[in-house]
Specification:
Elements: H1 4-17, H2 19-41, E1 45-46, E2 58-65, H3 66-70, E3 73-80, E4 85-92, H4 95-108, E5 114-115, E6 126-132, H5 139-161
Antiparallel strand pairs: 1-2, 2-3, 3-4, 4-6, 5-6
């Protein structure tokens, strides 16, 4: 196990090169613009709160269709830093609702999206990888791909939950 002191020295070396700050700033600016894109283009969905920047593990924002909100559910558009990928998650406003819908989906046998294997330590119920190793040199195409996958995920979840 490394010590905090050793890690801090490595951290300082990386920061002195400047790429970490530029990449992180660029990523957060992109995520904020993506959040704004969903706010403007999907007025029927609530995009509450602000961007959660995380601890360089994940950054995300929520998208909340009214029918999911009534159930205590929300959609999280997530960037996982270490994995370098975008995912979309079905999440809940609290652990009780998370457990209820996790059980319902598990018992239904619905397998269109990845059901988290266990709830301990999980922030999601369902997860779907939108883009592995995104290309940040073409933000318009990246946004379009994320948008299409996210809207499809939301639609599929809504259709599945309708009869429940």
């Amino acid at each position: 196990m490394t010590s905090l002191q050793k890690d801090m020295l490595i951290y300082q070396e990386q920061l002195q090169q400047g790429a970490v700050q530029r990449a992180y700033k660029g990523l957060l600016e992109y995520l904020l613009s993506l959040r704004t894109h969903f706010q403007k283009n999907y007025p029927d969905y609530s995009v509450p709160g602000s961007l959660y920047t995380g601890y360089m593990d994940m950054s995300y924002f929520s998208i909340v269709p009214a029918d999911l909100k009534q159930r205590g559910l929300k959609i999280a558009l997530v960037f996982l830093h270490q994995e370098m990928r975008f995912e979309v998650w079905l999440s809940a406003y609290n652990k009780q609702v998370q457990s209820e819908y996790w059980q319902r989906i598990r018992q239904s046998g619905w397998e269109k999206y990845r059901l988290v294997p266990e709830l301990a330590g999980a922030d999601s119920i369902l997860e779907y990888v939108l883009i592995e190793h995104p290309d940040f040199s073409d933000l318009e195409t990246l946004t379009s791909t994320i948008e299409q996958g996210t809207i499809a995920f939301i639609s599929d979840v809504q259709k599945f939950l309708k009869p429940l």
